[in-house]
Amino acid sequence: MSKQTSAFLQDFSRFYILLILYEGPCHGYGIISKFRKRIGKDISPSLVYPFLKQLENENLVKHECKPLGAKERKVFELTKEGKELCANLFKRFSNLVSSVIAPTLSICANCGCKVFEGGHREKIKGREMAFCCVHCAHSYKKNHKAR
Question: In the CATH hierarchy, which top-level class contains the domain 3-100?
Fold first, then answer.
């Protein structure tokens, strides 16, 4: 893997760490476990803990030592500034993803909802039309026969 690819994946990993913290307080091992469970990949503690320390130094995260089971763990939580940063990052990321996905969406000819994958296509009066489901296709045909 190239250095550039590795750096990109680390940035994605950091982004996902922020997402986990945005969902609520979590200790370091909890972040590692959630990452592995959701992404299906391991994340190195040597990425997680220095990043948490960096966030803490920038007043974006705070920690509190809490007993969890037989051990005491540092539980990390986003500060108000950290939550605001995340909200802005997620909004920008959402806009980026939307602009990438938009060209691949179909619009249901009946209800107007956006369909990313699947859906139902039918030829009506020689024209192929997109619907979100067979029920919308049926409703469309029923409503357009009466006109």
Answer: mainly alpha
